[in-house]
Amino acid sequence: MKFAVLDFETTGSQSNDEIIQVGLVIINQFQITDRYTSLVNPGIGIPSSITSLTGITDEMVQHAPRMEQVIGEMVPLLTDAVLVGHNVGFDLSFLQKALDENGYFPFDGRVLDTMDLLRMLFPGMSSLQLSLACQAFGIEHERPHQADSDAEVTALLWLKCIERLLELPLLTLQRMCALFEAHATDLGWFLEEIRTFRELQPAAEPETGKFFRQFALAVDDWDQDEFVREESDVAAIPDQFSEFYAQVKRNLQVRFEMYEDREAQVKMQQEVEAALQGKQHLLIEAGTGTGKSLGYLIPALYYGMKQDKKVVVSTHTINLQEQLKERDVPLLHDIFPVPFRAAVLKGRSHYLCLRKFEHKMNALDFENAKEDRVTAGQMLVWLGETATGDEEELHFGSKGPQFWHTVASDADSCLNRNCPWFRKCFYHRARYASNNADVIITNHSLLFTDMKAENRILPAYKHLVIDEAHHFEEVASKHLGIELHYFQLVNTLQWLYKDSRSGQLSHLRQRLQKHEGELAAGWVMTIDQIVPKLVQIKEDWDLLTEQLYQLLAAGSDPSQSEMGQPVLRMKKEKLPSIWPTLQGIESNLYLNLNDVSKKLDKMLSELKEVQEEYEVQSVVTDLGGSGKELTRHKDALHFFMNMTDDTYVYWLEASPTMKAKSLQLFSVPMDVSPMLKEYFFDAKESVVMTSATLSVDKSFQYTCEQLGLGTEDNGGKLKTVMLPSPFNYRQQALVVIPRDFPSLKGMGSEAVFVEKLVDSLSDIAVETNGRMLVLFTSNRMLKATHPGLKDRLTAHGIQVLGQGVDSSNRSKLTRMFQSHPACVLLGTSSFWEGVDIPGEALTCLAIVRLPFQPPNHPLVEAKTEFLKKQNLNPFMKLSVPQAVIRFKQGFGRLVRTAGDKGIVVIYDTRVIDTNYGRYFLYSLPGPKIEHMPTTQLVSRIKQWMGEHEQ
Questions:
Q1: Helix (H, G, I), strand (E, B) or coil at 226
Q2: 3-state DSSP assignment of residue 400
Q3: Which residue in 359, 642, 913, 933 is deepest, having the highest Cβ count within 10 Å?
């Protein structure tokens, strides 16, 4: 088989753009046999942005051959070849244009894309961007965005794909072939060719994979993995934690030659152990560099093993949960003097349901034809690798999450022990592991799901450690509230019935029609009665959401929202005049949904008696799950439209681009602190809460009130501890405030502010050679700043990346920022915390505005009204503390290790002009703080960096 791996550099991506460089690599019999490369004179000027990206200038192509000559030299190489490219559609379109313009027949051979194969064959690869994909394989990519270099590495990636295909379990390859019709797609043809080649080879070593129901898996049955701790192990655990830690420390010193205790970490371990032992609650603020995870894991494991009690550790983000699992727990396994078991348990939808996946594969029922088949292929390969079945291990294409939703585990459609896959089930494996664990690592979301499920998910526990605790109250509001998205109801309706061939009811009808008799005919009739109702429900839901969106668009001010999207609070005492009409539509929806639920329930309960005889067990189970989901959506809508509970806040949200199709209905309890008190602080023996940001003005009062812990009570059940940071912020960080910077008050002030901001940021970025993170509170202001800053810095070779402009993916933007030597990254809400950019990639942090929540956000507004009724100052009681905690998180992005140093520029002069400004500056961990005229910023930064160079 001959492959021609092609890459073009062009003057742009429009149809009238021209080729400026060609790279072509020929592969024959799985080896590179030929190469062709040439610059091309495009006959037009090369835009500066392309020169900046590729390094190719007008002078370089001035004497290069024209495309007419180059294409003539390429055509013989392309004869009888399969064309391969990285995002091949781009290169193919330019190739066809060049062939056509120069009098050649179009390329009519087969075309394959490395991106499809990489996604399927390496399901854990975090980025398919060419340089990052090369990095994952250790392939050196010398000159990114030059066609010869790009074609060369693409060819090497293609060879990696072929190598992988040749070593996959044959069964997996055969199932992949079944996904793609060989005659219908080039990808299907190629997989079929590889399969035929593999099947004709003499049998090598027998395949070592584990095979079950025609799938190659990486796992055995989950109940075979029993862990028993010997009594002698427990007896060997010292009675005093200090003695135990001394043993751990000795092992750490063996493992890490330069290991030294961190004073704050040792103090944290002592406090956590004392709280668990003394049945106390503990609020402990520990800054970056403390090593919080080992600060609580070591004492939690010691206490859990010694007392034979489970300790649950909860994080806000899946990222931190993964870090504990992948980094901290393996380290502790190595250094602990006795064996222990730690388990990770996530929400059920994070795990693959093997029964649903098998059904999907057998039915080949795909919503997005090509994308879903690639995703299914990716998951087939992954099944041969994964021990957890956790979606976090997969990196999907754009429609991947949608496909995952159709095969994810869920309680409503679980057959439990009746499922043929039960002994392999990833979710039950994780549950089983958590039942046998000393420490269970979970997340805040699952804690509240477990609470709502009356503690039937997590094993019984009385000891809880909450990391990233500054998010606990916010997550509680979200999970104890009720939310309904337009597509949630639409998707459930479409799972039930999409058309006569697609949907659970259509599948059931097809199965029943194969059987004769009154029973089957009766159920077919029931389905035929339900389907028109579902169509009517969809029409009424579209009508209702359209009208609700009109209300939202007319009554909201998107400029007041952080992300620039419309938000509108609905108050029972001030409802718009159209509300009774909308309630009438909802009433019809409610009646029809009820009717569907009753008919569905009756039919399913009858079918369950004979489901094996009719071979409908799987579809009956899934229908039962969809029916329950429909009931939940019906109740959520009814609750919102009737607003029967005055302790809830109700509002609408949508995206200005997707309009009614992005509508979300929120019903959220205004104050969750009583529930937190009842279900956690009163119910648990010990709750330890930790974060780098729990205090405001050296006090925990705000956090205590938010969590339902009342006022600080140091003598009783609650203890609060503030640990000093291990970093020398006086030496490592300089905070500068331009005291004459314009404010945002008055007409046209934002335009002036943005203009001055672009001037100042570009001057500083030139001095620091990029390496700057700029934090915004407004999406709109970020987008206003981005183009001006980019224009100013491109000439200096400094790249500007904007969240929501260049990409919305935080991880991708962070990787791009770190991989570029001179870069400025503009970020909004999600960049204020959880972003870790240690070392020289980040030298300067700019905070554009203090991170106050928009005062008109419905939840903030309702809490404000509540505080006013109590004659309290909502600004000082709520707005300032919230903003200070977020500000501290933002500041924490700069110094991540003892070797980091840098500058923070605060462009919001309220920190020095107002009485409350001191709360922000006093909350910082001791950096040098100076204010000066804007014109002096650059010289002061230059001077400080010169003084603090290592």
A1: coil
A2: helix
A3: 359
Same domain, 758 and 865: yes
State which of 669, 684, 715 marks the end of a domain: 669
CB 345 within 8 A of CB 255: no
Q: Is position 265 within any domain?
A: no
Model confidence at 663: pLDDT above 70: yes
Mean pLDDT, the chain, whole residue set = 90
CATH number reported for the structural domain that contains residue 874 in this entry:
3.40.50.300
3-state SS track over 80-127: CCEEEECCHHHHHHHHHHHHHHCCCCCCCCCEEEHHHHHHHHCCCCCC
User: Token pair 């059940």 is at which residue?
Assistant: 717
Q: List beta partners, residue 26.
A: 4, 34
DSSP bridge partners of 85:
113
Q: Is residue 129 part of a domain?
A: yes
Residue-level pLDDT at 181: 79
* Region at 854 (left for phi over 0; alpha for psi -120 to 50; beta for the rest): beta
- Whether the Cβ atoms of residue 324 and residue 293 lie closer than 8 Å to each other: yes
Q: How far is CA 419 from the centre of its chain?
A: 31
pLDDT at position 227: 57
Cα separation of 383 and 361, whole Å?
13
CATH number of residue 14's parent domain: 3.30.420.10
**pLDDT: which is higher, 900 or 596:** 596
- Decide the pairing of beta strands 2-10 and 82-85: parallel
Among candidate residues 537, 507, 538, the one with its CA nearest the CA of residue 364: 507
Count other Cβ atoms within 10 Å, centred on residue 660.
18
Q: Which domain holds residue 658?
A: 483-669
Q: How many domains does the chain have?
A: 3
Do 665 and 733 sit in the same domain of this protein?
no
Tokens of 518: 């009154």
Q: Regarding predicted confidence, which is higher, 108 or 744?
A: 108
pLDDT in tens, 32-43: 999 999 999 999
Token code pair at residue 919: 């709360």
Last residue of a domain, one of 669, 690, 719: 669
Say if 889 falls within a structural domain.
yes
**Phi/psi at 4 (5° precision):** -115, 110
Integer Cα distance of 729 and 179 in angstroms = 57
- Residue 23 CA to chain centroid, in angstroms? 36
The span from the CA of 163 to the CA of 488, in Å, is 41
Q: Could you tell me the pLDDT band of residue 209, with boundaries at 50, 70 and 90?
A: low
Whether residue 661 is found in the same domain as residue 546: yes
Q: Same structural domain for residues 745 and 873?
A: yes
Cβ(616)–Cβ(506) below 8 Å? no
